[in-house]
Amino acid sequence: MAMNESKDFLRTKVEEDLKAGRYTHVVTRFPPEPNGYPHIGHAKSICINFGIANDYHGECNLRMDDTNPTTEDTQYVEALKDAVEWLGFEWEGGVRYTSDYFERLYEYAMQLIKMGKAYVDSLSEEEIREYRGSVTLPGKRSKYATRSIEENVELFERMKKGEFADGQHVLRAKIDMSAANMQLRDPLLYRIRHTSHQRTGDTWCIYPMYDFAHCLSDYIEGISHSICTLEFENNRVIYDWILDTLGLTQQRPYQYEFARLNINYTVMSKRKLLELVNKGLVSGWDDPRMPTLAGYRRRGYTPQSIVHFCDTIGIAKANSIVDVAQLEFAIRDELNLAAPRVMCVLNPLKITIENYEGSELLEASYYPEDVPKEGVRLLPFSKEIFIEREDFDENPPKDYYRLTPTQPVRLKHAYIIECKEVIKDTTGKIIQLKAHYYPNSKSGEDRSGIKVKSAIQWVEEKSAKEIEVRLYDRLFEDESPKGSEDISPYSLKIIRNALIEPAVIDTKLDERFQFERLGYFYADPIDYSDKHPVFNKIVGLKESWGKKAQSTQPNKMEKKVQIDGKVVPMSQAQHAFFEHYTHTLGLNSEIANTLARDERLSSFYAQTLEEFNSPIPLANTVANEVARELKDKTLKELKFGAKEVAQLIKMVEDEIISSKIAKEVFEEMAKSGEAPQTIVQIKGWMQISNPQILQSIIDEVIAKNPDNVAKYKAGNTKLFGFFVGEVLKATSGKANPKMVNELVGKTLQS
RNA sequence: UGGGGUAUCGCCAAGCGGUAAGGCAUUGGUUUUUGGUACCAAUAUUCGGGGGUUCGAAUCCCUCUACCCCAUCCA
Q1: Buried/exposed A294-314: b ≥16 CB within 10 Å, e otherwise
Q2: Cβ atoms within 10 A of the Cβ of A431, count?
């Protein structure tokens, strides 16, 4: 499927790495912690990791990140494996476990200790917290950080042997207690837990922390790209620190982060999901309203539809909330082409067709004309039938297409009928209709000439089967639900005696059907039996009628008021610079401001002025281009100096090169440190300012793009830039842009 | 308040100095024995705000704003 030309940033990175030869082989991993049931957010991660591995002919491992024995359980391991398989992916080799690496991890920890890069701390939990400081205050180091290597080795060995109680000691990396990034304040590497582990049993009583175990597990498995969610961005520095410190730098993995999936009307956190289950608000982890994969599966979503959904939502770093409608679209889109159409009546209203006698079997296609699938079933028909109560209205609203006392309707696959009498009970409730049919209106051989507005579903009384239908709707009413308190009372409606045409039950053509005009339904994999068929509503059909009435106008764009914050005032010295720049040198206040506030820029600027007296152009270049280089470099690290910048500007002033070329020369200069003249000469970047040459190129461009010329002449002035751009492209940027502008303007006018 | 991120249509999302992709949703219309599907069309003079650089800025520079993450012996 070559759907989108555009690639996500992860794939872009992988391609770059492959091309640059940093890796010959892509290895990713899906590393869940087995402490909860996988949900659709996991599906996104699975699709990314396995998807990338597939796309680049690499592999993806499935690894259980089981470093915390107090919260993890084997039942989740099974659920996770199921989820990956169900979605149709295959992991490389057997399932991996972080616990498989405990021995090696222990050795790496020992290595760090011996390097003096890790120490056993014996502070209490509260003390550790206190010592860590806060986001604004630096922390302070534990007195135990000064223990000798020998002492640390011995203590860590004894921790392993189980000589200490939980919490008595921990192993920490020795990094920086005053680091601005909190993660770097001597992160914990190991803690004591006298808890039996689901796989290693009682072999270990010390367990590695995520930060320590994850990067090393990735390294051990030969992972090339370690992809995780945004909240681990801050942890990346430790990931790198551990690998680098241990010298594991060859073919090492790097971490990349993407935004986790959020969907409106849905909760995704393990905690909230667990709460729903524990409080009995749903029937279990596989309740069809749950966003768990087990839930979607039971509801009737296909794995392909979930994968397709994941493909459509994209991968990026912006926190976002995807509209459920997008998920619903994915399953509808698939089922539209796959599901047989069948007739079911949820809320029956009986009709007696007074002028019909006997019975017949009508042949009806399972699929509409526009679905390229074949298959038919027989529909019993007689004078006693049921239609949907909603499909009759005695006092219809405007634009009601269905049956009314004066409006006939077609019974799908059968005849056109019209209402003759409405029978009500004493309370006024309609209990039955009497109708007449048109004998010559039979479906497929209609000679009645009657135009009906719609065709409705129906079932024949004697042959219809009773089924249970579970009508599921979104679990939460609130678009961004907090939790169980927002549960929608309409999320489940059970209809115990809906009526369905017999073929569905007798033939069992499929597990998923479209109940015509109602939606897509799925035979419940657990509760369904021949005696008591149960169908789950997967998703309704798209509805366009009735929507108009309630469609709330999206509130007229209220302009968001932007508050302008206070700018920190300039120091006296800065102010002096500013004054000098604006008054003496004639710089505009913005450039003057930028220069004045940054010491490095102002001193650099002063140096350029000594080389070449052209204050304004030099200021512009320093405040823009040089400032960019200085963002992640120091003055000393710059490959070029004031002299080169001055020379560059002089070439622009002398009209040897255009400002566009100057930009490229500058970039080259910053990279190689070469003198600007040399760069221009080597690259042959001399400006083309010969009007004859330019004009011929312009004529060519114009001749090649008659459509755009027409559009331009019709008023699309934006296209001006297009023509200029084309000409510049044709000359590899060497054309004098000012002149091109002028000439293009003139040419297009004529 | 320190650090790390993010901001392009109602919702996702491309875009990397030269005509603002695409999908979902919405709105018209055409086909239709599903108020479905399919098809056609509409929908950002503008990219969080303000300045600046440039012939030309969503893209480069400055600045402000909003939101998310980090102070578990969780992952």
Answers
A1: bbbbbbbbbbebbbbbbeebe
A2: 11
For residue A273, name the pLDDT band (cuts at 50, 70, 90): very high
The bridge status of strand A465-472 relative to strand A534-540 is parallel
Distance A353 CA to B73 C1' (A): 77
Report the Cα A695 to chain-centroid distance in Å: 49
Locate A686 and state its tokens: 């001399």
Closest residue to B6 measured CA to C1′: A318
Give chain A's mean pLDDT. 95
3-class state of residue A465 by DSSP? strand
Distance CA A319, CA A637 (A): 35
Of A13, A117, A141, A270, which one is the catalytic site residue? A270
Write the single-letter amino acid at A511.
E
pLDDT, tens digit, for every residue of A208-226?
999 999 999 999 999 999 9
Angle, in degrees to the nearest 10, between helices A102-114 and A149-161: 160
Give the C-alpha separation, A546 to A549, whole Å: 5
The structure's pTM equals 0.95
pLDDT given at position A435: 98
What are the φ/ψ torsions at residue A439 (nearest 5 degrees)? -60, -30
| Residue A520: strand, helix, or coil | strand
Quote the ipTM score.
0.97
Shortest CA–C1' contact from A391: which nucleotide?
B35
Burial of A691 from C-beta contacts in 10 A (0-12 / 13-18 / 19+): middle
Which residues, other chains included, contact A297 with Cβ-Cβ below 8 Å and sequence gap of 6+?
A: A86, A286, A303
